[in-house]
């Protein structure tokens, strides 16, 4: 069996740092000397962000100990690998339901961009607009709406917007986001977004906004052959190694994290054209 070690790498820092999730029990048996960590050992080694959420799979979040425990169990005792041929995949939650917005919600995804970005505030605004435009161009049902009047009070506690975009100082990731079912909705952005080589700020924010729409990392699909995360997803299109949701370092075929036609087809399949 292929080793199903979830590489919980941080977007952008994955080349230099990689914190691994636990191997599945049968995979551990195939790797002499490896012992599956207890949940406590796994939790102790998992990065807890400034807002208390746990970072898994590089740039995804688990809000609580309970959620982290479910994530741990899905890794140690994974469901059968999906073999559907039908790039983009949507996260599934309890009961196998798609983790997605309703049509009315996805048409009004309001956000603020914190003025705490200082001199970079306008640059973040532009990167967000560019990243949002990638998905809005794929489905007319999707509409991200920046609310500048809320930028001065841009935190997760601001109920005047759907989510906040805030600065963070960390070596764990370049940026990270949330899924529709997440209750603490924010996108956190490190300064390293401005020095990420071929990964432009627009494409990085496009990747993160993909998560906010419910899309998972493409490289968790078996066709990738590496960087498996879990099987809590449903395929929307054929596998796409160049997907904006596919880490290049996980056998991806695109070095710049750009959006593909297949990504657009997946977004349209989930939310309509």
Report on this model:
The chain is of the alpha/beta class. Helix content is 24%, strand content 14%. The protein is built from seven helices and twelve strands. The longest helix is centred in the middle third of the chain and has 16 residues, at 121-136. The protein is globular and about 50 Å long. The chain starts with 6 loop residues before the first strand and ends with a helix. Residues 1-32 and 82-86 have low confidence and may be disordered. GO terms for molecular function: metallopeptidase activity; zinc ion binding. InterPro entries: MetalloPept_cat_dom_sf, Peptidase_Metallo. It comes from Knoellia sinensis KCTC 19936.
What keywords describe this structure?
alpha/beta; Collagenase (Catalytic Domain); five-stranded mixed β-sheet; 24% helix; disordered N terminus
- Look up the CATH topology of the domain at 103-217 and 226-271: Collagenase (Catalytic Domain)
H/E element string? EEHHEEHEEHEHEEEEHEH
Structural class by sheet pairing and helices = alpha/beta
Q: Reading side by side through the largest sheet, how are the strands ordered?
A: 8-7-9-11-10
Number of helical stretches of at least 4 residues: 7
Q: What does the overall shape look like?
A: globular
In the CATH hierarchy, what is the superfamily of the domain at 103-217 and 226-271?
Collagenase (Catalytic Domain)
Strand content: 5-15%
Biggest pleated sheet? 5 strands, mixed
Using the CA coordinates, give the radius of gyration: 18 Å
CATH class category of the domain at 103-217 and 226-271: Alpha Beta
CATH architecture of the domain at 103-217 and 226-271: 3-Layer(aba) Sandwich
- Low-confidence runs: 1-32, 82-86
Mean pLDDT metric: 83
**Ends distance:** 39 Å
What's the β-strand tally?
12
- Roughly what percent helix? 10-25%
